[in-house]
Amino acid sequence: MAEYVLITDSTTDLSPELIRELQVEVIPLCYMMGGETYHNIPGGGEITVEDFYARLRRGEMSTTAQINSEEFIAQFSPFLEAGKDVLYLAFSSGLSGTCQSAAIAREELEKRYPGRRVEVFDTLCASMGEGLLVYHAAKLKNAGKSIDEVLAWLKENVLKLCHWFTVDDLNHLKRGGRVSAATALVGTMLGIKPVLHVDDEGHLIPVSKVRGRKQSLDALVKRMEETAIDPKGQTVFISHGDCLEDARYVERLVRERMGVETICINQIGPVIGAHSGPGTVALFFLGEKR
What is the pLDDT of residues 169-217, one digit of tens each? Predict the structure, then answer.
């Protein structure tokens, strides 16, 4: 069986500790703030995640950029030169052009390195939803599964990777075109919180609205209760935009209501956080459908 390396993006929002445990390679994406460009490096970067959210709360804007094909060529080439194949799990094509850039790089690299494979898999996932898919793929790889066996599992299960989000500030979704200006204004005045998910095409879609923060967090857990496959036996991920106590509240509900034992919590990094804003909480698990 050919040796291969598993590569993904920093949009997985995985902790440095988990990245080391899983033995995956992570490519940092970039974001711009205050006229400067920063790297979304897991666990660090030029500014801390806490400083990033503090600046958002003060009213600063942040924008993001996809990785281009030349960057992918530079990232993948050393592994191919070392005689390893590449399995790259990409940030959702429904949210970024990064996956397409990787596909362009693959065509060039397979010409440069005949006999080597570069597989680009569109996760149709974001944040720790992408991270949870990478987690399962890495567990299979580290158990000795081949690149084809891991790809087969991914294709069978990618649309079972459920993402449920809520946000505290509708204005970030308004800037990203996810809600209208009128919806953001009225929702803010009335304390309306949206519940969103990532659909089968990898797009972030508003699904429902509830009044009040606690009710929006409860709604995430209710969605999991409705669709989760063997919740007690699952590994569940929760990500948050600098609101750990709210993430802990969701964790407690998931443990109490469904008996889940293994739950990983981590911050939403700046690339995702630029679009979702402070106060975002997201719950990720395997379900019957998205």
Answer: 767 666 655 555 555 555 555 677 889 999 999 998 888 889 999 999 9
Determine the length of the chain: 290
Single-letter amino acid, residue 88? Y
The angle formed by the CA atoms of residues 56, 60 and 64, to the nearest 5 degrees, is 85
- Where in the chain are the domains? 4-158, 160-286
Q: What is the DSSP string of 111-136?
A: HHSTT--EEEEE----HHHHHHHHHH
Strand partners, 103: none
What pLDDT was estimated at residue 184?
Answer: 54
* Residue 25: closest CA among 100, 101, 80, 95: 80
Tell me if the domain spanning 4-158 has CATH number 2.20.25.90: no
Which residue stretches of 113-212 are H helix? 127-142, 147-157, 170-175, 181-190
Task: Domain 160-286: give its CATH code.
Answer: 3.30.1180.10
| Distance between CA atoms of residues 63 and 78, nearest Å | 30
Q: pTM of the entire structure?
A: 0.94
List the beta strands (DSSP E) in 2-84: 4-9, 25-27, 29-33, 36-40, 62-65
In terms of Cβ atoms closer than 10 Å to its own Cβ (0-12, 13-18, 19+), residue 159 is middle
